[in-house]
Amino acid sequence: MSLHQSADGYLQPPPVTTHSRPSRRHTTDSATSRPPRVPVKGQAAYDDSEIEGELASDIQLQAEQIRRERQSKRAKAQQEAEAALTRTASRTQDETRVLVGNLIGEDHVNYVLMYNMLTGIRIAVSRCQAKIKRTLTDEDFTARHKYSFDIIGNELTPSAKYDFKFKDYAPFVFRELREDLFHLDPADYLLSLTAKYILSELGSPGKSGSFFYFSRDYRFIIKTIHHSEHKYLRSILKDYYKHVKENPHTLLSRFYGLHRVKLPRGRKIHFVIMNNLFPAHKDIHETYDLKGSTVGRLYPEEKAAENPRAVLKDLNWINREKSLNLGPEKQALLTEQLRRDSEFLKKLWVMDYSLLVGIHNMQRGNRDNVRRRTLKVFSPDVPHIRRKPTQVNGSSPEAVAMRRAMRESDLKGLGHGTIQLPEEDTGDRQHFIFYQDEGGLRATDEQNELMETIYYVGVIDILTPYTTAKKLEHLWKGLSADRHKISPVPPIEYADRFFSFMKAIMRGGEGGAKFKAE
């Protein structure tokens, strides 16, 4: 092969002439860079105008295809928007029908918070439950166990849908409260908080702005609390534990766990797990929140007629001439327990608590269908775990199965389903004298004969100390109303008034009218 010299002085191989037909595939090269077509005998050569015409035709076809795809996407987006509006309208209608709270889905503002809460509870409770039981120490009351969750996971924590941090406070103390003092089966408690979750929230009847989330069987409440309440519960935990141990039939709120979740941007949410005072198997036809205060303690009766789940107050009870109809034996027991609990709260220097009273009319029964509403749930893939009252230790089949469930459960999304609330009492209330009658306290006449009413009573909101802010509130409200009738009064006066009011509204008492402000 001979070489020739180019214009720049370098030796180059001679140009190769090709006789192959040019490809019609689209390229980014310009038309001027195409190799010249060598005409074949008997066939006319392509000219530039014909090539440009073919390119224009191909471009037009592609443009038409792009237009069709865009139109299809716009139509699909419009259909999705219409479907979303339909779902929103349907959801709005459902929320007006559901009486136990607001349904939570992925579009709900608290969806991520709820997901993180439940994931943290599952891991923390199962870890503590798998350890061997031991005698409590002083350090157990101040203990804090930390967990970090991310989308990758590690040996200690499984992968999660979101990044967050979780704290479990005094886990061994709350474990003993649950198992030894409140008689909760450990596996039963764990499964209630890990099998399915009723994603239904209910705003607190008070002014705290807290939210309630119910467990799948409606037995437990996850309640968000303020940081001050969280600190206060930790500070009184030892006293609370001692009081419950000495008073097994206490009416005080039952705390089963104290936790904190920290979201990625630093927001910290504190919450407790408590008992649901109202049972899952009975409709509550009337609800009252009683403090012994009568200033600003009236729920509008016209609104109450429209909302059977309204939480009524002291003046509603007095104006309706209600009373706790209990025979001599039950009344004496309830009065004594209220005295002990109010004395304990007085020593803790707290106030603003109340007696929550739920009334079930046995003649009406459950025909109002208050409980049976379709609620949204999500169900992690937890294998069947055998329930038994014995201790679950670290090497038992139950603990092994639960640890495997923690690793293998797919928590990537929430599904929808329906919940079937039980038709009978779960049995754990039978240990307590005030919850032995269908989970509550059945009314009796003066001869202790049964009546057709069941009361569900308990002292709630016990985490409000008498701080400087409450003192100022007492002074301010006392300027425009009787300072002995307003809600914020010093703890000693509050406890004495609270106990006097509860005695007065029982059968044979003086009635609540004397507590009215003049």
Automatic annotation (TrEMBL):
Gene3D superfamilies: 2-Layer Sandwich, Phosphatidylinositol Phosphate Kinase II Beta. The keyword Cell inner membrane does not apply. Residues 105-506 form the PIPK domain. It is an enzyme of class 2 (transferase). Residues 56-83 form a coiled coil. Its EC number is 2.7.1.68. One of its GO terms (biological process) is phosphatidylinositol phosphate biosynthetic process. Keywords: ATP-binding, Coiled coil, Kinase, Nucleotide-binding, Phosphoprotein, Transferase. It catalyses: a 1,2-diacyl-sn-glycero-3-phospho-(1D-myo-inositol 4-phosphate) + ATP = a 1,2-diacyl-sn-glycero-3-phospho-(1D-myo-inositol-4,5-bisphosphate) + ADP + H(+). GO terms for cellular component: plasma membrane. Residues 1-47 are annotated as: Disordered. Pfam families: PIP5K. GO terms for molecular function: 1-phosphatidylinositol-4-phosphate 5-kinase activity; ATP binding. This is 1-phosphatidylinositol-4-phosphate 5-kinase. It comes from Heterobasidion irregulare (strain TC 32-1).
